[in-house]
Amino acid sequence: MNDNIILLGASLGQMQTNCYIVGNRQTKEALVFDPGDEGFRVMEMLNKEGFKLSAVLLTHGHFDHVMALPYLQEQKPGLPVYLHEDEVDVLREPSLNLTSMFGEPISMEADHIIRDGQVLNLLETEITCIHVPGHTKGGVCYYFREQGWLIAGDTLFRQSIGRTDFPTGDTEALLSGIREKLFVLPDDTEVYPGHMNSTTIGLEKRTNPFLVKP
């Protein structure tokens, strides 16, 4: 196991969206997952650890997970941005990324389009993209098998699940995707959601009221 890989988190913006930084203490490279807001805080966290921002990975395109992206792109021109292939228009269209509902309409683009099951070799470790549509049609989780981490976005929460009443949402797709793609992971997998506290796959299999059959 690569003990140099660490995970840091902070809740950002009015929606208290969890942004995660995963860095390699040896190479000093770092990835930012879901920079929801307050880009200056993200940069402060990176600088405090002596990390260099290598890329941004998005679990989905909703405004509260991406609002700091333009700021980070200003700080590092050419910054790679990863997004699932089914989520491209969600990030691009203000009516889908919800910026038209909650503020100034913003259209954004990603330049690294990823697919379900694709393994990204970053930070000298492997990160698997797990496509779980339902909160949005191109929502993904990022699985660090070696570290036992799942960055889940708004797919799976502690004893809850993501909302499905926004554009491109689908309740049945979300529930089946969680059961078929996430609940097959080891029970001790740490789940880092887009909001609220972390949990584990095992705990959610036993206690999540949306997923446990009565």
TrEMBL record:
<keyword id="KW-0479">Metal-binding</keyword>
<feature type="domain" description="Metallo-beta-lactamase">
    <location>
        <begin position="16"/>
        <end position="195"/>
    </location>
</feature>
<dbReference type="InterPro" id="IPR001279">
    <property type="entry name" value="Metallo-B-lactamas"/>
</dbReference>
<dbReference type="GO" id="GO:0004416">
    <property type="term" value="F:hydroxyacylglutathione hydrolase activity"/>
</dbReference>
<dbReference type="InterPro" id="IPR036866">
    <property type="entry name" value="RibonucZ/Hydroxyglut_hydro"/>
</dbReference>
<keyword id="KW-0378">Hydrolase</keyword>
<keyword id="KW-0862">Zinc</keyword>
<dbReference type="InterPro" id="IPR051453">
    <property type="entry name" value="MBL_Glyoxalase_II"/>
</dbReference>
<dbReference type="GO" id="GO:0046872">
    <property type="term" value="F:metal ion binding"/>
</dbReference>
<protein>
    <submittedName>
        <fullName>Hydroxyacylglutathione hydrolase</fullName>
        <ecNumber>3.1.2.6</ecNumber>
    </submittedName>
</protein>
<dbReference type="Pfam" id="PF00753">
    <property type="entry name" value="Lactamase_B"/>
</dbReference>
